[in-house]
Amino acid sequence: MYKIKYLPSFETDLIEAENYLFEHSPPAVDKLTDAINEQLLNVTEHPYMYPVYPEFEDLRYMTLPYQYLLFYTVDEERKYVEVYRLLRGMRDIPKLL
Predict the structure, then answer these.
(1) Fewer CB within 10 Å of terminal CB in the chain, N or C?
(2) Backbone region of residue 79 per phi and psi (left: phi > 0; alpha: psi in -120 to 50; beta: other values)
(3) What is the residue range of 26's domain?
């Protein structure tokens, strides 16, 4: 089983996403955070289950509600999944990564 390590960039992105969703639809915050937790639980067991992002060989991603994408890397040596970014799919993803 892999451990989850949240990078500061993800934590900042999550706060921004929660604030944005709370302004527009408060129940959406719970839906997004529940989806993140559920999918990351799966990743601890199967870290390679999600595809590699085309422009970055080591970066994997999962799709979430409200057009969000969660990006992570797998550190095989330390058995970590490093959660890197949480971005809206409509943004310039390669530029932000």
Answers:
(1) N
(2) left
(3) 3-96
